[in-house]
């Protein structure tokens, strides 16, 4: 018994005195953060997708869908964000970090409201720019944001002037200037709106740094939206009452659709949620580098979705701007460090998975060639590009005609159809896209008959008659009134008779100069089935189609049906 007590006491003393092997600590295991359920690439891809979708969605609604009310769209986004953040704050734990922010009424009025004013103006000017500029050019201009923030901090005295930093950001300015010089569809009003939006956003960021610089006021994007959205919604609503709301009707909203507006606001709100998860699962550095990748992908997406032209000069300037942006964000030492780490990872991948590495190189080369050729092909080899597009399933809509004048007219009326609400431009563009068979000729007698409207010869007096096709003469008509006719082509006799009667023969591009919206015009087209060949189209008995015969003489049998004749056979 005594031996057992001694043995137990020795074991107890050995357990307390001697060192033991390391074991898992249950407390440490409980407090350790849980590993991410998804790979970081999933969060990066989600953020890039939502960010690009928001920009493309806004461009579609404001430009393609002809909903020219950017202030209303911004206000709708902020109202939706206000409602959703209030719901998340009351029924979820996503916004629990807001309780750590010492927000009072005095702080809200002196900090949040002034910042919200500049935030609202930044959003309004940014959306206004989509009415005038392409998505690709807007993304190129947004690369100057660090430069604007730096100049604003110097102007407001937040930080001292540093010439070395100014030299670093000068590459961004040079690149954007080169890209602006290469812009084809440059519109000064849109350029000024985008510059104003960048300036307001820079002032907002500096005010956040100045007024909310304490550690207690550090907020993630979703908490910031929780505080800023109500104030910005009220500010935008007041501006909306005196600007766009008096001109809006329910027909404008119905044309876009309530579901489209709801989906647009949902995508914009989910973008803020994805930023929180991206920073929480990775870091702010990953967000910066992902933003550069997103801008590049968005430029290429706008080229294919909206047919935005990007010249080689623009691509060169944008590459300089992006290089300067990455160097400014990371610095020379960090950039060398990350390049070295990336080189080591690339070599390790080559040793562990050589096949995967080769596939990645091949995919990068193919995608690069596709993007480069897709951007330069329509400019330098349009015919070959059209053949490729038609061969792979008509990825873009191209005119059937190979006439260079018709192709130039298509580009002209694409621009007019996009910039105006006139149905005239859309109809002319649609007819220019058609084949020659679907652009039948119209005789001057048909023009006079349609212009007179069968009731009054003065019904369309003074209007320009537009025909996307050929105008031919009609000898049966002895007297021709004074007409103003625009067409793709006039026969020599038709042109002579119209001008002799005191009228004028115009081209389609002259109509665009005189009447960009198609006002004071009459659009006509000829009968498509009036050609002689249409009388022979079709087959089978009782189809009432005219047979082809070699001669109309009496010695040739002209019977129809199943017989050994030179007539029509089935």
TrEMBL record:
<feature type="transmembrane region" description="Helical">
    <location>
        <begin position="285"/>
        <end position="306"/>
    </location>
</feature>
<keyword id="KW-0689">Ribosomal protein</keyword>
<feature type="transmembrane region" description="Helical">
    <location>
        <begin position="69"/>
        <end position="87"/>
    </location>
</feature>
<keyword id="KW-0812">Transmembrane</keyword>
<feature type="transmembrane region" description="Helical">
    <location>
        <begin position="186"/>
        <end position="207"/>
    </location>
</feature>
<feature type="domain" description="Sugar phosphate transporter">
    <location>
        <begin position="41"/>
        <end position="328"/>
    </location>
</feature>
<feature type="transmembrane region" description="Helical">
    <location>
        <begin position="41"/>
        <end position="62"/>
    </location>
</feature>
<feature type="region of interest" description="Disordered">
    <location>
        <begin position="538"/>
        <end position="570"/>
    </location>
</feature>
<feature type="compositionally biased region" description="Basic and acidic residues">
    <location>
        <begin position="1"/>
        <end position="14"/>
    </location>
</feature>
<feature type="transmembrane region" description="Helical">
    <location>
        <begin position="131"/>
        <end position="155"/>
    </location>
</feature>
<feature type="transmembrane region" description="Helical">
    <location>
        <begin position="359"/>
        <end position="377"/>
    </location>
</feature>
<dbReference type="InterPro" id="IPR021132">
    <property type="entry name" value="Ribosomal_eL18/eL18-A/B/_CS"/>
</dbReference>
<dbReference type="GO" id="GO:0003735">
    <property type="term" value="F:structural constituent of ribosome"/>
</dbReference>
<feature type="compositionally biased region" description="Basic and acidic residues">
    <location>
        <begin position="547"/>
        <end position="559"/>
    </location>
</feature>
<feature type="compositionally biased region" description="Basic residues">
    <location>
        <begin position="560"/>
        <end position="570"/>
    </location>
</feature>
<dbReference type="GO" id="GO:0022625">
    <property type="term" value="C:cytosolic large ribosomal subunit"/>
</dbReference>
<dbReference type="InterPro" id="IPR000039">
    <property type="entry name" value="Ribosomal_eL18"/>
</dbReference>
<feature type="transmembrane region" description="Helical">
    <location>
        <begin position="227"/>
        <end position="247"/>
    </location>
</feature>
<dbReference type="GO" id="GO:0006412">
    <property type="term" value="P:translation"/>
</dbReference>
<feature type="transmembrane region" description="Helical">
    <location>
        <begin position="259"/>
        <end position="279"/>
    </location>
</feature>
<keyword id="KW-0687">Ribonucleoprotein</keyword>
<dbReference type="GO" id="GO:0003723">
    <property type="term" value="F:RNA binding"/>
</dbReference>
<feature type="region of interest" description="Disordered">
    <location>
        <begin position="1"/>
        <end position="35"/>
    </location>
</feature>
<protein>
    <submittedName>
        <fullName>TPT-domain-containing protein</fullName>
    </submittedName>
</protein>
<feature type="domain" description="Large ribosomal subunit protein uL15/eL18">
    <location>
        <begin position="398"/>
        <end position="570"/>
    </location>
</feature>
<feature type="transmembrane region" description="Helical">
    <location>
        <begin position="107"/>
        <end position="124"/>
    </location>
</feature>
<feature type="transmembrane region" description="Helical">
    <location>
        <begin position="313"/>
        <end position="330"/>
    </location>
</feature>
<dbReference type="Pfam" id="PF03151">
    <property type="entry name" value="TPT"/>
</dbReference>
<dbReference type="InterPro" id="IPR004853">
    <property type="entry name" value="Sugar_P_trans_dom"/>
</dbReference>
<dbReference type="Pfam" id="PF17135">
    <property type="entry name" value="Ribosomal_L18"/>
</dbReference>
<dbReference type="InterPro" id="IPR036227">
    <property type="entry name" value="Ribosomal_uL15/eL18_sf"/>
</dbReference>
<keyword id="KW-0472">Membrane</keyword>
<dbReference type="InterPro" id="IPR021131">
    <property type="entry name" value="Ribosomal_uL15/eL18"/>
</dbReference>
<keyword id="KW-1133">Transmembrane helix</keyword>
<feature type="transmembrane region" description="Helical">
    <location>
        <begin position="161"/>
        <end position="179"/>
    </location>
</feature>
<comment type="similarity">
    <text>Belongs to the eukaryotic ribosomal protein eL18 family.</text>
</comment>
């Amino acid at each position: 018994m005594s031996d057992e007590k001694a043995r137990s006491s020795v074991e107890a003393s050995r357990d307390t005195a001697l060192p033991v092997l390391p074991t898992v600590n249950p407390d440490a295991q409980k407090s350790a953060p849980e590993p991410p359920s998804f790979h970081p690439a999933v969060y990066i891809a989600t953020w890039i997708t939502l960010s690009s979708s928001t920009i493309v969605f806004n461009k579609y609604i404001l430009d393609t869908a002809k909903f020219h009310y950017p202030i209303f769209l911004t206000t709708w986004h902020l109202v939706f964000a206000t409602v959703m953040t209030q719901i998340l704050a009351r029924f979820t734990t996503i916004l629990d970090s807001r309780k750590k922010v010492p927000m009072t009424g005095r702080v809200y009025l002196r900090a949040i409201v002034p910042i919200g004013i500049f935030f609202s103006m930044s959003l309004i000017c940014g959306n206004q720019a989509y009415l005038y500029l392409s998505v690709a050019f807007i993304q190129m201009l947004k690369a100057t944001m660090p430069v604007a923030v730096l100049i604003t901090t110097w102007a407001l005295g937040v930080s001292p002037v540093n010439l070395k930093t100014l030299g670093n950001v000068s590459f961004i300015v040079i690149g954007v200037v080169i890209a602006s010089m290469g812009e084809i569809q440059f519109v000064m009003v849109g350029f000024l709106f985008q510059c104003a939006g960048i300036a307001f956003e820079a002032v907002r960021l500096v005010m956040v740094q100045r007024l909310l610089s304490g550690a207690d006021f550090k907020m993630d994007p979703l908490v910031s939206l929780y505080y800023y959205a109500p104030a910005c919604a009220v500010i935008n609503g007041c501006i909306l009452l005196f600007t766009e709301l008096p001109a809006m009707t329910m027909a404008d909203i119905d044309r876009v659709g309530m579901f489209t507006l709801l989906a647009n606001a949902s995508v914009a709100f989910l973008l803020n949620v994805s930023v929180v998860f991206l920073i929480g699962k990775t870091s702010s550095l990953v967000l910066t580098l992902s933003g550069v990748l997103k801008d590049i992908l968005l430029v290429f997406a706008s080229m294919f979705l909206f047919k935005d032209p990007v010249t080689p000069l623009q691509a060169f300037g944008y590459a300089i701007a992006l290089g300067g942006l990455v160097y400014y964000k990371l610095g020379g030492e960090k950039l060398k460090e990350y390049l070295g780490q990336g080189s080591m990872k690339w070599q390790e991948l080559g040793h562990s998975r050589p096949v995967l590495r080769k596939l990645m190189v091949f995919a990068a080369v193919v995608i690069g060639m596709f993007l480069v050729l897709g951007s330069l092909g329509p400019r330098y080899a349009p015919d070959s590009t059209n053949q490729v597009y038609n061969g792979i399933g008509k990825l873009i809509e191209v005119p059937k005609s190979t006439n260079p004048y018709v192709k130039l007219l298509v580009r002209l009326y694409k621009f007019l159809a996009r910039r105006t609400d006139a149905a005239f431009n859309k109809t002319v563009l649609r007819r220019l896209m058609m084949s020659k068979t679907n652009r039948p000729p119209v005789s001057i007698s048909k023009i006079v008959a349609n212009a007179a409207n069968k009731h009054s010869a003065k019904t369309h007096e003074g209007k320009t008659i537009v025909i996307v096709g050929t105008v031919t003469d009609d000898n049966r008509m002895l007297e021709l009134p004074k007409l103003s006719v625009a067409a793709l082509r006039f026969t020599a006799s038709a042109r002579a008779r119209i001008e002799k009667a005191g009228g004028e023969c115009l081209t389609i591009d002259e109509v665009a100069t005189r009447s960009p919206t198609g006002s004071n015009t009459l659009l006509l087209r000829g009968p498509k089935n009036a050609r002689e060949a249409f009388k022979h189209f079709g087959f089978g008995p009782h189809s009432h189609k005219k047979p082809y015969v070699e001669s109309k003489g009496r010695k040739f049998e002209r019977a129809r049906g199943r017989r050994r004749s030179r007539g029509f056979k089935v």
